[in-house]
Write a structure and sequence with these properties.
It comes from Paraflavitalea soli. One of its GO terms (molecular function) is zinc ion binding. The radius of gyration is 27 Å and the shape is globular. The relative contact order is 0.09. It has about 625 residues and is of the alpha+beta class. The N terminus is likely disordered. Helix content is about 25%, strand content about 30%. Among the domains are: about 160 residues, Sandwich (Immunoglobulin-like), CATH 2.60.40; about 120 residues, no CATH class; about 90 residues, Immunoglobulin-like (Sandwich), CATH 2.60.40. The structure holds zinc ion (ZN). Zinc ion binds next to helix 9. The site of zinc ion (ZN) has 4 residues, from helix 9.
Length: about 625
């Protein structure tokens, strides 16, 4: 009996230990989603998965140099949740500019405005008092009656706000060039994990949006061109005939066509000469809309095939100040990026009809739009930043990522794709740039902030630790699993995950579990190692011993991260050999790995080189054979 009990205890203990090995920490909100049947533990949306949707019809009036923007909108919101809605949350993102708003960083006076003023608000046609006009980003509104599951509700807003003079993601570019983003009152995401998104916008943590349908009309005076998200309606009524003709040609041309030159702008030859032109853009199933307007920017355009199977082309446009040195190359850079991302990594055809790179002061992505500063003569940096922002088309926009909580599901992919496209062009330059900008900042600094597990919700992390977790550290995790699986399996998993969750709201567990399922391997040891631990990068040569077939190299994993590495060997005869080791060497024992080196030659020295997986302590990565006396 005693023996039997002991055996039973051992059995339970063993199974618990193996469970700990094979399962990931799972917060209660995720467990609940599995229990409710909205998500499946194999990484797929389950039968009861839901997400809501809105249809926006927005009209904006801008009359630069006045910084006041007037807007009206109608939102039809469809409640696809299983619960009635009585208290929806609205987000007025530009209230970030109000004095007293809770921001992640300091701002100068030119950043401040009086925020968003709601002048009129109705629910299903009934005027309502806008609650809390002195509030900030989040507004919880009580509806006269609940919206039942499957029902819709109509909101209308009249509002106005002043653009901030200090411009980053949006604002005044110059007195008659504006960038309009986050400009309309929006209903927050309500999802199966967190309910209403009530995370504050602090200008550091990014966004979370449903997939909505938009019609946006921007009214501007003659000679102002509007670039933006969506299909421009009836361009021939807005542009003068010669410009309209060139614009139309650009949709089928591989060449970079100057749509509006400096001479065209000076001669007022670009837009139709009405007192006011109404530029209308439409897009469906898209997370957001953004626009740039200017009366003096020049305009280039071309297009390229992004889907070899169907021959579908995407338009590539750039709008910029004629004095810049890098922007005249921008259509070429962006066209190359669309082709490369569509055909290589992630290898999914660029999903939109166009992209426009607009010269502003940010390095920021929006669906079909990029707002990048000019880098002067540094065309390499201008190109890298544009590639990064265009890569965001896939994550967060194609995938509906909650960037606020899971920024690493967004930024780290853009960072990985930025590295891969750069690497294809020039491996050495890409490695150097990636190490310098993306890895060194957190590897060279022993601060504990850099060792916070990547899975930690972004809402609980800030500053440099957040940056490392979202960008370089998590990107190394993605690049490590690419090395572990090999390109073919990695691509199958990545594309499978993207197709499964396109237009939805995946969370990290959906990603991990989908990769496990599609690779046919339980990678939880790897996910746990990279995303759920306090690890850092530090490997060390423990020993090199002679065997009958060559040598056995034993490596200590001091930092813990399961990195790939090259063993660079120099033999006594002067010859060299590089043995690549994938992260698989850490699967059995994450502290210690052995590598069998088959050779009949004598080794003089040996180096563990992680390349972009930069080691925090390189001093113990080298081994030298003892000199014979
Ligand atoms: Zn980014």
């Amino acid at each position: 009996m005693t023996r039997y009990l002991l055996f039973a205890f051992l059995l339970i203990a063993t199974s618990l230990a193996s469970q700990a090995q094979s399962s990931l920490y799972m917060p209660r909100d995720v467990q609940q989603a599995y229990k409710n049947g909205t998500r499946s533990p194999d990484g797929q949306p389950a039968g009861k998965y839901w997400q809501s949707k809105a249809r926006y019809n927005i009209t904006i009036t801008a009359t630069p140099p006045s910084r006041t923007i007037q807007g009206t909108e109608e939102i039809v919101y469809f409640n696809n949740s299983p619960e009635p809605i009585q208290y929806p949350t609205f987000r007025l993102l530009l209230n970030i500019h109000k004095p007293g708003a809770l921001r992640a960083g300091n701002q100068d006076e030119d950043y401040l405005t009086s925020g968003v003023h709601i002048d009129h608000f109705t629910v299903d046609g009934q005027p309502q008092t806008w609650p809390d006009p002195n509030g900030f980003v989040l507004h919880r509104v009580k509806l006269p009656q609940p919206v039942k599951p499957g029902d819709s509700v109509k909101f209308t807003f009249n509002w106005h706000y002043d653009l901030s003079i200090t411009s980053n993601r949006e604002g005044v570019i110059d007195s008659t060039t504006f960038y309009l983003a986050y400009f309309y009152p929006r209903i927050a995401v309500n999802d199966d994990i967190s309910g209403w998104d009530r995370s504050n916008f602090d200008d550091l943590h990014e966004f979370y949006s449903d997939f909505n349908d938009y019609t946006v009309t921007i009214k501007v005076p003659a000679n102002f061109v509007v670039w933006g998200t969506g299909t421009l309606q009836q361009p021939e009524t807005l542009l003068q005939p010669a410009v309209a003709k060139r614009f139309k040609e650009s949709f089928t041309s591989d060449a970079v066509i100057p749509i509006a030159t400096k001479a065209d702008v000076a001669a007022k030859n670009v837009t139709t000469q009405n007192a006011v032109n109404a530029w209308q853009f439409k897009a469906t199933n898209i997370p957001d809309m953004a626009f740039g307007i200017s009366d003096h920017f020049v305009w280039d355009a071309g297009s390229t095939i992004v889907d070899d199977a169907t021959g579908r082309r995407a338009s590539v446009q750039a709008a910029y100040n004629d004095t810049t040195k890098d922007y005249p190359h921008m259509v070429g850079f962006a066209r190359n990026a669309l082709q490369w991302f569509s055909r290589n990594w992630p290898g999914i055809p660029y999903p939109y009809e166009k992209t426009t790179i607009f010269q502003g002061y940010a390095g920021m992505e929006y669906p079909m739009m990029v707002n990048d500063e000019t880098y002067g003569e540094d065309t390499a940096l201008a190109r890298l930043v544009a590639e990064h922002e265009i890569a965001h088309t896939y994550m967060p926009f194609y995938m509906g990522i909650n960037e606020t909580r899971f920024g690493f599901m967004d930024e780290a992919w853009a960072t990985s794709f930025e590295y891969l496209i750069g690497h294809a062009a020039n491996a050495e330059v890409a490695d150097r740039a990636f190490k310098e900008f993306r890895v060194a900042p957190f590897v060279k600094d022993p601060a504990a902030e850099f060792e916070i597990p990547i899975i930690t919700p972004g809402t609980a992390v800030t500053g440099s630790g957040l940056r490392a977790n979202q960008y370089g550290k998590a990107a190394l995790g993605y690049l490590a699993v690419k090395d572990l699986l090999g390109d073919a399996t990695f691509k199958k998993c990545l594309q499978g995950y993207m197709k499964l969750w396109n237009g939805k709201h995946p969370i990290p567990w959906d990603f991990f579990n989908t990769f496990n399922r599609l690779s046919g391997r339980n990678l939880n040891w790897f996910w746990n190692n990279w995303y759920f631990t306090f690890n850092h990068i530090d490997v060390a040569v423990k020993s090199v011993t002679k065997t009958s077939t060559g040598y056995t190299l034993t490596i200590n994993n001091v930092g813990g991260f399961a990195i790939p590495l090259d063993v660079q060997i120099v033999y006594a005869d002067g010859s060299k050999e590089t043995l690549h080791q994938t992260p698989a060497i850490w699967q059995k024992n994450q502290q210690l790995a052995t590598v069998a080196i088959k050779t009949s030659k004598a080794i003089t020295s040996l180096l563990l080189d992680g390349n972009i997986f930069m080691d925090t302590n390189e001093a113990d990565n080298m081994w030298k054979a003892p000199v014979k006396k």
